[in-house]
Specification:
The protein is an alpha+beta fold. It contains three helices and six strands, in the order H-H-H-E-E-E-E-E-E.
Amino acid sequence: MTNENELENPTTENPGEQSPPPIEETEVAPEIETELLAKTLALYDELQDKHLRLMAEYDNFRKRSQREKDETYATATAGVLLKLLGVQDNFERAQQYDCGSADFAKGFELTMKSFADTLASFGVEPFGEVGESFDPEKHHAVMHIEDDNLGENTVALVLQKGYKMGEKVLRCAMVQTAN
């Protein structure tokens, strides 16, 4: 059997419990309502502006961090490669001397090629050839000669090769210039 109270108030689980009183809507004056709405919209606009600024700041931070990471990697790689260029120079000097054994010379040549290929895999390229135009950004002039056969500001002799990685010069070429 159902109780009349249960039919009138079907949401009540326990018939002994009372439901909270209904919320009465109160009349608010239109000018107060408009003022409240204006304040709420102003607060919304302010929070939206802060949110957009925070998002832009975070995006800039993310880009700056990635750029710094890339620069750090490139700088560290260049530092290590610069140290290895001294080894390359010593290999080139040693190659100029006769070792007396064809097998040793062949092995030494293969070692030099392997080392040069390793440097090339990092994007390292040698530069500095006789006849090039002197560029103070890439060449370090340590001697100067007068030679009518060579043009003005021309590399006459390369004492030590220069190397670059991409557009970055790792080491300037040490050269003798003419005229």
